[in-house]
Amino acid sequence: MSVPLTYYLILGAAVFCIGLYGALVRRNAVGILMALELMLNAVNINLVAFSRAVTPGLLTGQVFALFVIAVAAAEAAVGLAIIIALYRSKRTVNADEVDLMKG
Amino acid sequence: MDIPLLVFLALAVVTVIGALGTVLMRNIVHSALFLIVSFVGVAGIYVLLEADFLFAIQILIYVGAVATLILFGVMLTRGVRGEQPQLNNQFLPAAIMAILLFVVVLVPVILNSIWPSSTQPAPTATTALLGQELMGTYALPFEVAGVLLLIALVGAIIVAREH
Questions:
Q1: Domain boundaries, chain B
Q2: A40 touches chain B (CB under 8 A)
Q3: What is the CATH topology of the domain spanning B1-81?
Q4: A90 touches chain B (CB under 8 A)
Q5: Contact flag A56-B145 (C-beta cutoff 8 Å)
Q6: pTM for the whole thing?
């Protein structure tokens, strides 16, 4: 493998940090969901890179990446359904304006 | 400089620019389009890591399905009229502090660790091997993932349904 593992890990860390920034500061709930997808992609980069560098024959990391993709798809579907239900009842998708569960 | 490294750098730039565009664009539709760019960049990274099946899945699921789903979500929730929505919430300084702390911890760990590495060649076609793993060693998690997807599908329909 001609590209060192470290490069992939740095790329994964960079994408994860960008996603974390988006998840923390975005007001639009759809934006938060997109940032979450970015973070899950960063995790997948790390899993596949470790799989390739450490145990190329076993594919364990790739199997885990597949499970992460399955969970991410489920999360996107449920998240968007919640956002659409929220928009119907409150006419907003801004996460900081939704305080129904605040005591 | 060898060619894989150049390809990696190009793909990394595409991925990071897509990611930055996703979190920084004011218009949520532009964000979603930048997200697609980032997904395609990650798919290229999978090619470089010789994960051909994951490349196809990344294009099919993320670029094909998740991006479309998000664009539908954007389309169905727009129409907050009149006001120019402010992009970020009040946690911006705290978020930047948190991310800086994360980077300060993470980057030295990545750079200073000695990662195990193998010189073994990767299998040329991963699809059949992945299928055997999923039906053999990981049969139970595979079934659970199927049930999870079914429940998520039913739950999403029930939550988003008009009453």
A1: 1-81, 129-163
A2: no
A3: Four Helix Bundle (Hemerythrin (Met), subunit A) (1.20.120)
A4: no
A5: no
A6: 0.91
